Amino acid sequence: MASQNALSSTNFYTIAWIAALPIERAAAEAMLDEEHVAPTDFTRHQTDENVYTWGRMGEHNIVIASLASGVYGTTSAATTASSLLTSLPSIRVGLLVGIGGGIARPDEGHDIRLGDIVVSQPCGTTGGVCQYGLFKAKSGGKLERKGFLGRPPTVLLNALSSIQSYHERKDSKVPGLLQEILKKNPKMGKRSKQNPGYAHQGFDNDLLFKASFDHIPSPDYRGYNRAEEVQRDDRDTTDPNIHYGTIASGNTLVKDATTRDRIVANLGEDFICFEIEAAGLMNHFPCLVIRGICDYADSHKNDQ
Q: How far apart are the first and last CA of the chain?
């Protein structure tokens, strides 16, 4: 990654990229084609405690911020975005990028795998993100929606349309970009007990189990009954597929398949992913939410 002197003004930065975890921020910074120092006219607002990375990605100048270490969820995300906007009023486009729990239902057309990408897209009655805590229980087990989250800016939805059209004609550029990142940052491709690495974990480590099957404390599930595994068609490549739809967001981290399926059934939305930050942003910092699938929102999470 090349670096250069500071740009003269914060007005050249109109895109803000927010990550929750340090590993997510590291991936974002690795994507930069060029890293900048802070613009010469940058004046931090007295209430802004964010730490920023400045740079260029393609033709766009981007500023990257992350949540305070160890402090996650919708409130922390809202604080990060609010502080950013006080210091950088020129920001027009927001991206929330990181990892999330995939809601894989291969028999219903959602063949989501580890390493795939999910992108928030307005669907039905949602703007692409639905807060699963904003509902009131009604008689008969029904739920009534008590609030709504905004949708991404139109410019980003138009960009989505363009990307989807491109992928109808040509392959995604993502695999090539990932290879380039690992070439420029060799450490990110190395695996150890302390560092699972940023490369694909291998098909043997991508197992989807039935919701009724609880985690067995074993690194490789030796001895489990194969009848508990959801059988899926083989893929001929580890390149990630991209899925568009509704992302479920709330302050409760979902790590249980029974809870996962109950939330999806109760809310009646066609969710494709769970995460815990986006709901804090959408009404105050309209953004596109992009998540890489790291688990299936169940008890079998594998950090590889």
A: 26
Q: 141 and 259 in one domain?
A: yes
Long-range contacts of 189-195 (CB under 8 A, 24+ apart): 191/304
Lookup: tokens for 15? 């895109």
Domain ends where: 44, 66, 91? 91
Rounded to whole angstroms, the Cα distance separating 264 from 208 reads: 17
Instruction: Write down the pTM of the prediction.
Output: 0.91
Of 216, 248, 210, which Cα lies nearest the Cα of 229?
210
Q: Are residues 124 and 268 in the same domain?
A: yes
Paired sense of beta strands 143-145 and 135-137, if any: antiparallel
25: confidence class by pLDDT, cuts 50, 70, 90: very high
Please tell me which of 19-28, 211-220, 246-255, 257-266 the model is most confident about, judged by mean pLDDT. Answer: 19-28
In the chain, how many domains are there?
2
Strands 242-249 and 271-275, bridge-based pairing: parallel
| Full residue range of the structural domain in which residue 32 is found | 1-91
According to DSSP, the residues that pair with 98 across neighbouring strands are 291
pLDDT given for residue 269 in this prediction:
75
Summarize pLDDT for 102-119 with one digit per residue, the tens: 999 998 889 999 999 999
Q: In the chain, what are the helix, strand and coil shares in percent, each to the nearest 5?
A: 25, 25, 50
